[in-house]
Structures are given as C-alpha cells and as structure tokens.
Specification:
Distance between the termini of chain A: 31 Å
Radius of gyration of chain B: 14 Å
Strand order of the largest sheet of chain A: 2-8-7-6-5-3-4
Radius of gyration of chain A: 22 Å
Number of helices of chain B: 5
Distance between the termini of chain B: 32 Å
Largest sheet of chain A: 7 strands, mixed
CATH superfamily of the largest domain in chain A: Type I PLP-dependent aspartate aminotransferase-like (Major domain)
Mean pLDDT of chain B: 91
Number of strands of chain B: 3
Number of domains of chain B: 1
Strand order of the largest sheet of chain B: 1-2-3
Structural class of chain B: alpha+beta
Number of strands of chain A: 12
CATH topology of the largest domain in chain A: Aspartate Aminotransferase, domain 2
Strand content of chain A: 5-15%
Structural class of chain A: alpha/beta
Order of helices and strands of chain A: EHHEHEHEHEHEEEHHEEHEHHEHH
Oligomer: heterodimer
Largest sheet of chain B: 3 strands, antiparallel
Helix content of chain B: 25-40%
Helix content of chain A: 40-55%
CATH architecture of the largest domain in chain A: 3-Layer(aba) Sandwich
Strand content of chain B: 15-25%
Number of helices of chain A: 13
Shape of chain B: globular
Order of helices and strands of chain B: HEEEHHHH
Low-confidence stretches of chain A: none
CATH class of the largest domain in chain A: Alpha Beta
Mean pLDDT of chain A: 97
CATH topology of chain B: Sufe protein. Chain: A
Amino acid sequence: MIYADNAATTRMSPRALQVMTETAAELWGNPSSLYGLGQAAQEALNDARARMAKILGAEPKEIYFTSGGSEGDNQAIRSCARLGAAKDKRHIISTAFEHHAVLHTLKRLEKEGYEVTYLPVHENGIVTAEEVKAAIRPDTCLVTIMFANNEIGTIQPVKEIGAVCRAAKVPFHTDAVQAAGHVEIDVKEMNIDLLSLSAHKFHGPRGVGALYCRTGLPLYPLIEGGAQERNRRAGTENLAGIRAMVTALEEMAAHLDENAAYVSGLRDRLIDGLSRVPHSALNGDRAHRLPGNVNFCFEGIEGESLLLLLDQAGICASSGSACTSGSLDPSHVLLAIGRPHEVAHGSLRLTLCEENTAAEVDEIVKEVPRIVEYLRGFSPIWQDLQSGRRAHML
Amino acid sequence: MALYSEKVMDHFLHPRNVGVIEDADGVGEVGNAKCGDIMKIFLKIDGGVVTDAKFSTFGCGSAIASSSMATEMIKGQPVEKVMELTNKAVVEALDGLPAYKLHCSVLAEEAVKAALKDYFDKNGIPYDPAQFPEAPSCASCEMH
C-alpha cells in the first residue's frame, strides 16, 4: 500500500507511540492531585509545555493544550470576537479558503452580528499582506489566516501579515495545522498572536493539539469547568497524548530541513510526472507550497471514481470532488482559486511525508495517468472536449 | 471498501455496456458537469425491443455502477417495459446505495427515459409528455 494522504492524517511515530503508552501506564495520576502520583504527572505536563513552547519560539505560559486543530481554531476566533465585542469591534478578516473549522465558526459569528471580510486568494492560492492591510478597519477585532492551506498546500506570507496586524494593533490568528512540524515556525519572529496546531498531522496521536496565545492578549475558555490550563481550557489533561505530541513535534523539528529537502524532492518528482497528463493542471503556487503537497485537476473525469480506482491499485489519496464530501459542491478551496466546478470535480490531492519513497512516487506517476485515461475513455465530457463540442478549460 | 456494496463495486470496477452506439436509435444525456455527473445512454431498438444499450458516464463510482446496472436491466426488454424502469429498481439491483448517492440512480432512470423519448421523437411515435418530466435532480445546481 502507498499512503499518500498525509494531510488527512499521519502514521504515529514509533517513539511517540512508545511515550504515549508509557505515560498512560506510569504517569496516570491526575495532574491536579496533591499527592506524589499526581504531582509527577503535573511535572511531566510542565515539561511538555516548556518543550512545546521552545519549538514554537514561545513562552511556556503561552501554550494551552487542546483536543486538536478544530478546538484551537474555534477558541482563538471566539475569544477574539468576544474581546472585540467588548470594545464594539465586530469586524473580522479571513480568506475564502480557510479550513471549515475556521469558516464555519466565522459563519456562525456572522449570524451573531459580526461582519467578515473574506479576502480573495487569487489563482496561486496566496493572499498578500497588502490586501490584509487594506481590509483592516477601525472596528476590526481579528485577522485569521491559515499558515498553509490543507488542500493545495500554499504557504501564506504569515510574517508579513503578522507585521501588518501588529502595526494596526489587531490580533492575528493563524491555523497552522498543516504547517506545524513541516515548515519553520517562530511565533515571535513571525508576529503571530494566536496559533493552533494538531498532533496527528505530524506523526502524533489523534485528539490532541495546542493553542498558542501571546502574553497580554486575553484568552477566553471555550470549554468551561475546572481550572486546568490556567482556567483557559477545562478538562483533565490528556497527558499521554500531550507528551506523545511533543515527542513527535521534537522529532520533526530536529529533522525539519532534511525532511523538507527530501519530501519536496519527492513532491517535485510527482508534480513533473503528473504534469505530463494532457489537460491537467497543478493547483496552487508551485514554489510557495508545503513540502509534501501535490494537488492536480484532470479535465473530463470525476475525483471519486479516480480515488476508488487508485485504492484498487493500492494508493491512498483524496479529492476535492463533491462526491467525496456528500455535498453537491466541489471543494471551496478549488473554487476560491478560480477553478470552474466542472474542473474542480476532477481533483486529486496526494500528500507525501518523509516515509514515502521515490519508488512509490514512480508507481503513482504510472498509475494516475493510466486511470485518468481509462475514465476519460467513457466520459461524455471528454468525448465532447475531443470532438470540439465543449471547449477545454485546462 | 465499505462505502459501497459488493454489487456496486463489481459494476464500478467491471462496468457492463461501456461505450457509444454510433447509429443509435435513441440517445439520452442527463446531468450537469457543474454537479459532477453526466450520463449518456445509447439505445438500439428493433421491433419495439431494446436490442442493445451502451453508456458513457462522467461521475463517481455509484454513477458509473448505476449506468452499468441500468443498461443491463433494459437490454432485451420491450420498450413498454423499459418505460417502467425506476431508480428504486436500479438501487435494489445494486443492493443499495448510500443515501446521498441515490441521486445517481435517479440520473440512470432519467437517462434511459431521455433516450426513449429521443427514439419516440425521431420515429414519430406518440407518447404522453407527462411521462417525461423535466429532470429535477440537478435543480439545486442551477443556484451556482
């Protein structure tokens, strides 16, 4: 089996898995308990927080452990919205191609009376700091823009956007779920006020993540209850998950440059190979993209049937086709970069990691064109494109 | 794969009656590229009997399987019997479809009927237009 869906989730690192089981077996006390067993767990929690902070360039007290990316996104946005409302500021700036954890939270806030500006992301899938600057108003209470897009992998000019927000004194949140562990992140250097990440995207476990919130910026809890996480996130800490997450992130951080060089080499080999399919196109900027992300549209075919046939060939991938999501609309990300519906239905996302090999990439490069050609063979759209009844879009 | 029944996967992986009939007696095309599925069905009709049926489909696994199954079900059948084909019968023959994929079976029924209507029109055969209502299944796409 060739696993090429690392943006969906990753295999846990053996070391992280070991730390997780050891922690669950040995450090099973409640960190809030006063006796030694609990205090040992508290110490391990403090240690994990300090290590996580170090990787991100933050202070330990700026790190809040969460259940994952969606929770972090929800809390960051809701908290800043509440802060804004207290000052009668109810305008938020974001982009059209955020993850649904951000978009759906913003849609909810719109219903609650907030106004949201969704900046365009252009054909290359990148928003500019100038556009953010131009959109900031006196009543803007938050800018939330993802670090790297989950579907097309494009990396945003986070540092520049952060500088613009800092100058305007507007909090800047970034959803770094796809970026953490794969590209360099330094929250101070990059002018980031809030950042959410998720462990399972960098070989950590499911159900655990972290939210960074800069000192001086108030953070309201999303989950009310006990005094854990300094009253910002109730619930007995998932210490086994937290320690495994930090272990996985440290491993990734220690090999960041070599991983990026190796994985982007595989990515480029895959992009070059798939570019030879006629009437296909790479989605998103070729240079400013995550090391492992490849996303193509193939004209005349539909993504779900492509995925099912790739699965038969032992290749795990994903698509922005409507049929894979259970909705009528194809991916909002592909529509945001200007792909027409017809073309967006025929998308394929392949996301690689350091566990993939060149031989696997070559196998994908062999199988995808074969399957695309097979499906085009009985596609009425392709027949119309070939006969000239329909004009090519790619 | 648990998403689809074995029957659906069989018809998706080994679709029956794939292709076009150049001198078809009736051709029906339904669906919309914007929605992500188009089905085109070609019929040969001789002596009031569908002697051959082929399909071309742009769509997901269940759209391809539905086309394959529908063409299998109508081959060799008299026209009056083919007129009675329902999407429900296609779904049953496929051992079910996920709820959000039922749309694909509706397209298969509509494509077969559109091909029959084409045959009736070409041959001046009278029919009740009420039997061929405008396809509602893609109405939601018109909002795009």
